[in-house]
Amino acid sequence: MDSLPLTFCDTVVSCLDLHHIKLLTLLSGSWPIAATNISRKARELWVRVYQDQEGVWIQVKCEADATFRSCVFDPKYDRIVKLELGIGKLQSATKVSLSHFRKVVLPQFRNLITRCTIFDDYYTGYGQYPHAVANAVFDELMDHQGFTSLKICNSGERSRKFFKQQLLLGNVTSIDACYKGWPSTLQGKVCEVVKSARFHVIGLEESEFRLDFDMVSALFDKCFKGEIPRGFHPIIRGKPSFLLVDFSTLYSEYTASKEGDGFPRFWGFDSGNV
């Protein structure tokens, strides 16, 4: 492994996200050299893509470390970790046509998105306008493996297909499903995310989804069986579809602390909340 040519290592490292690039700096040989060279110039980008009310013109704005950056991307160094969609005007943004966005910009996004959060909740109150940006993104990136967090509203058939497909891919660890109209058939897919080893946050309070008994008990099982890594705090939020008193006997040995035992894992319920 130490004898691998630097050019080969450089090519491989340029395809990784910044988290894994930094891990490679701990190795020996050509890997840490290539990883160090790339990590010094790496940019983790927050990309905002807003459309006008007619859905004809698109504005693209990039930020890294809360600073405006050029929207000229370099796939060797740039990674998109946040993608925000919306309607309105952006300051200091690059303006392109919808056609150019579809044909030129979106293919670039496909090569840059990694461990990415997608925000689509900025369509609140704009239901009468075409969702040109969202539809274009959902169509082009439907099967992309780089999304780990979804915060999207039900803006139409494409958003529902994108949501379902991303859950099926198995990379999503956090969900915020916004607004009404989500198909009840997706309830089971959301539950599977809670049961996955990498589950982080599920927020269903702004949607018609409900926290069912299987979702919440799956989180309890992880907690009380010691399956949650230290320092990791998974969260589920939403309206339960069951009576919380159903938990009265679940892990009842932990429902009350013993004075001085120092055991940190206790739970209770009150006023409809866990």
Give a nutshell description of this structure.
With 274 residues, the protein is an alpha/beta fold. It has helices at 6-13, 18-24, 30-41, 98-112, 132-140, 157-169, 187-195, 213-224; strands at residues 43-51, 57-64, 67-69, 78-87, 94-97, 113-119, 147-153, 174-178, 201-203, 235-237.
For the structure shown, list the relevant keywords.
single chain; 274 residues; F-box domain-containing protein; alpha/beta; 10-stranded mixed β-sheet; Leucine-rich repeat, LRR (right-handed beta-alpha superhelix); 2 domains
Gross geometry: flat
Q: Any idea how many domains?
A: 2
Mean pLDDT: 81
Order of helices and strands: HHHEEEEEHEHEHEHEHE
What is the alpha-carbon Rg in Å? 22 Å
Tally the beta strands.
10
Class of secondary structure makeup? alpha/beta
Percent range of helical residues? 25-40%
- The second-level CATH architecture of the largest domain is Alpha-Beta Horseshoe
Helix count? 8
Low-confidence spans: 257-274
Classify the fold: give the CATH topology of the largest domain.
Leucine-rich repeat, LRR (right-handed beta-alpha superhelix)
Beta-strand percentage? 15-25%
Distance separating the two termini: 51 Å
What does the main sheet amount to? 10 strands, mixed
CATH class of the largest domain: Alpha Beta
Protein name: F-box domain-containing protein
